[in-house]
Amino acid sequence: MKDNDFEFDSKEFRGNNEENPLLRFDALMAGVKNGGLRSVGTINLLVCYIVASFSGKVKAETITKALEEGELANYFEVADSVSRMIKSGVIVQNDNDTLSLGNTNGAPIELIEHDLPLTVREESIKLCQKIISRETFERENKIDINEKDGGFEVVLRVSDRNTDFMRLSLFAASREQAELIKDKFLDNPVAVYETVINSIFDNE
Q1: In a 3-state reduction of DSSP, which class is residue 165?
Q2: In which order are the strands placed within the sheet that holds 163-172?
Q3: In whole angstroms, how far apart are CA 130 and each of 49, 50, 118, 143, 176?
Q4: Residue 165 contacts by C-beta under 8 Å, 6 or more apart in sequence?
Q5: pLDDT mean values, one per 10 residues, the chain (204 residues)
Q6: Model confidence, pTM
Q7: Residue 25: left (phi > 0), alpha (psi -120 to 50), or beta?
Q8: Residue 200: CA atoms inside 13 Å, Cβ hemisphere, count?
Q9: What stretches of 15-149 adopt beta strand conformation (E)?
Q10: Phi-psi region of 165 (alpha: psi -120 to 50; beta: other; left: phi over 0)
Q11: How far is the C-alpha of 98 from the C-alpha of 46, rounded, in Å?
């Protein structure tokens, strides 16, 4: 595979004498857990798989963040893979910076799946979904952290356009605690809202 002229070719991913690109160990391993991807070829495959799964809904930074968070692949290897495939046309970057699959020279997504472990595929999709949901929650649900005497006030909102369905104010003793409350809330603000509502109506 040429470094400066990337082209999606399933045979090239497998190599001339190898049946499985997992047998190659040519990728940086810093920050990668046991069972993570150790070859440039499989990182390319996984990036293509994610883009195909979230066509038009996932950005480059979401993919790099997800694979780094899950310790599935080295951050710089993933960023380089995305960049090279955009340059070659294998991946297309849309006007809103989301990604779609471009020219794979006829290689179907089923072939890409074949050379990727099921656990890696499932975990990568789950991580991307979590980050995409979080980005949506951050846009739609505003969180304010205001310094108060002796600590911080964290104001959490569950909103729909201009309407706040819930406005919850919590006290945090430190900035770190306030940021932790914010992060946990953004993981799933709808679940927080439902828990509060259920607690109110179940309290008989």
Answers
A1: strand
A2: 143-148, 151-160, 163-172
A3: 17, 13, 18, 18, 22
A4: 158, 159, 193
A5: 48 46 70 86 90 91 93 94 91 92 69 78 91 81 89 90 85 95 88 87 72
A6: 0.67
A7: beta
A8: 7
A9: 91-93, 99-101, 143-148
A10: alpha
A11: 17
Which DSSP letter does residue 22 get? G
Q: Name all contacts of 79-88 with Cβ < 8 Å and 24+ positions apart.
A: 81/40, 81/43, 81/44, 81/47, 82/47, 84/3, 84/6, 85/6, 85/8, 85/44, 85/47, 85/48, 86/60, 87/6, 88/5, 88/6, 88/7, 88/8
Task: Return the pLDDT at 165.
Answer: 85
Write the DSSP symbol of residue 104.
-
Taking Cα atoms as reference points, which of 121, 10, 123, 30 lies closest to residue 73?
A: 30
Instruction: Identify the pLDDT of residue 130.
Output: 85
In the chain the first and final C-alpha atoms are separated, in Å, by 67
Average pLDDT of the residues of the chain: 82
Q: Are 131 and 65 contacting, i.e. CB atoms less than 8 angstroms apart?
A: yes
| Residue 22 CA neighbour count, 13 Å, CB half | 13
Helix H or strand E segment including 121: helix 118-140
Given the structure tokens 């006007």, which residue do they identify? 95
Report the C-alpha gap between 55 and 72 in whole angstroms: 21
Residues 6+ apart with CB under 8 A from 56: 94, 98, 99, 100
> What's the gap between Cα 101 and its chain centre?
17
